[in-house]
Amino acid sequence: MNKKIEKHQFQSEIKQLLHLMIHSLYSNKEIFLRELISNASDAIDKLRFNLLLSKNEIKKKEKEYIRIILNKSKNTITISDNGIGMNKIEIIENLGTIARSGTKKFLKNLSPDQIKNNQLIGKFGVGFYSAFMVAKEITVKTRHMQENNPDNSIFWRSNGSEEYLINTIYKEEHGTEVEILLKDNEKEFLEEWKIRNIINKYSDHITIPIEIQEYNTKNKTFSWKQINKAKALWTFQKSQITKKEYKDFYYDITKDTNGPLAWTHNHIEGTQPYINLLYIPKKSSWNIWEQDNKNNGIKLYIKKTYIMDDASCFLPNYLRFIKGILDAENLPLNISREILQENSITKKIKLSLTKRVLNLLHILSNKKEKKYQIFWKEFGTIFKEGIAEDTTNREKIANLLRFTSMKNNSHESILSLNEYIKNMHENQEKIYFLIAENYESAKTSPHLEIFQKNNIDVLLLSNRIDEWMMNYLTEFKNKKFQSINKIDNEFEKKFKKNNKNYNENPEIKNFLENIQNTLKEKVEKVTISDRLIHSPAALIANKNTLSPHMAKLFTAAGQKVPPVKYILEINIDHDLIKKIMNIQDKHNFKNWINLLFDQSLLSEQGSLDNPNHFIKNMNKLLINNENIK
């Protein structure tokens, strides 16, 4: 080593900046290896461009490599490459200044066409300093490709404090070698399995071979073994990839043994080119409903270098089940490359990816095979969130919704809204739906009776999210939605039961008044039903009344909800109602009316505030049933 060692001061406040970087900038220490490999990859890419631009054509093409040496006796890890290397001025500019990027400066000197095709990802010039998270000291040895004298290679060393050392050394080949003297508590990075795992996670798809030095104890020789695949599957054209390769790649990135249901793979050109390979899984992940669920969505790469898991800003939340890869040429990351910044580019990509996923689902829904039914069974509940979340694509989402209905007579949700409209009654103007606690309650609801009589189908909604969704889905193809749990005067005018004018009957009028006086504040009013055929009574809500299911949701969220007051509709032609009308004993009449109300309430909301009171009252009436003549 030359005796003329130069001491250089880092730029002002470098100590504080390094402290911030080492302790706050990165979320985990292993990222230092990703950054150094990324820098090495950039250096090799720069060399490629310089060779292309060089007037002196170099015919001999060297084998490109990034190499890692683990030395447990010295407590060091060394990352080397045979890229472009650095001269003295460049090493001072690039390693002596925080947030100054040699790659960024290099890009400025290239034409737009050259920039479009390069594979450089460096933007900030701070990735190198992430190594100080694990290093006591870092030594860099580098030789620029245009430096003909190996004795003029550059040596750089720093412990991350206020200064660094520079000297000239002998280095036989061009390229850069970064040697990290590890802190005493960071020796896990000397284990080959650990390095392999990090490479597999972050840098497996960099096209340059990453090799690790191995020692043969028998022959006492060193050799190099490649530890990355050096093949970014998504960068290939679809015609070059088999179905098996697509499925194997899905397993590699998700470890989901169930495999993918379908996928979409696209190369997008333009001012902001990117590649996406998105999969719809066959099975939902166990933690998909957890708010802190990570590592299940899109993995973000920039120029084939891994940046982050769960890049959630590229798809709306209702598509959070989608897994896959997004590889962009250039995106606005923060200084550590870990957090994506929101801007017009990410918004455009999000719109595009959302459209592609919806188109893929549309294709699946039109196929005879049952893939779409598998999708709906696994992800239908999540997908329904899109009706409220994504107003831009609401019509497309509505087209993809699937329902069970009264006529289908199956709990399987297979009916589309288009099919429902196609089979509508000739006098029907609205899409009717019923909200219930579960499918069994829905299909036996008294609200369906008048619709069954008039051969009008009703969508049966019993999922926890359905009523919330229907608050946003108010119309489809100029057909309004109407809940049959609530009053619909237009329907009753067209399809009401052929009742006599019972309101003019003094006996019936008196009977209704007695029911109202018995129930008092429990109901808003008591009327003769135009919709009940087989049931004695039912509870109907006004248009603006909070439903029992929404009330439960609000209550579960800790919000106070006013009591729901219903309209009690009485089927005056029912045998039980006729018998109750004949009860003379006021106390017994009261018991029967309360039982009738509780029955209707149980049918409507699936539960009672005091079920024991209901059972006692019912048992009492069963014992004394001789009181009804």
Concise description?
By secondary structure, the protein is of the alpha+beta class.
Write the topology of this structure.
Blueprint: E1 6-9, H1 14-25, H2 31-53, E2 66-71, E3 76-81, H3 88-95, H4 102-108, H5 112-117, E4 135-143, E5 153-158, E6 163-169, E7 175-182, H6 192-202, E8 210-216, E9 221-226, H7 243-254, E10 260-268, E11 274-281, E12 298-302, E13 305-308, E14 323-328, H8 344-365, H9 371-383, H10 386-389, H11 394-400, E15 404-405, H12 417-422, E16 431-435, H13 439-443, H14 449-453, E17 459-461, H15 466-470, E18 475-476, E19 479-483, H16 489-495, H17 506-519, E20 523-528, E21 537-540, H18 548-556, E22 566-570, H19 575-581, H20 586-605, H21 611-623
Parallel strand pairs: 2-8, 12-14, 16-17, 16-19, 20-22
Antiparallel strand pairs: 1-6, 2-3, 3-7, 4-5, 4-7, 5-6, 8-9, 10-11, 11-14, 12-13, 15-17, 18-19, 21-22
Helix pairs in contact: 8-11, 20-21
Mean pLDDT: 85
Count up the helices. 21
Determine the structural class based on helices, strands and strand pairing.
alpha+beta
Query: What shape does the CA trace take?
Result: elongated
Beta strands, count:
22
Largest sheet: 9 strands, mixed
Which CATH architecture of the largest domain is right?
A: 2-Layer Sandwich
Radius of gyration from CA coordinates: 36 Å
Task: List low-confidence stretches.
Answer: 56-60
Indicate how many domains the architecture comprises. 4
Roughly how many Å apart are the termini?
A: 116 Å
- What level of helicity do the residues show? 25-40%
CATH structural class of the largest domain: Alpha Beta
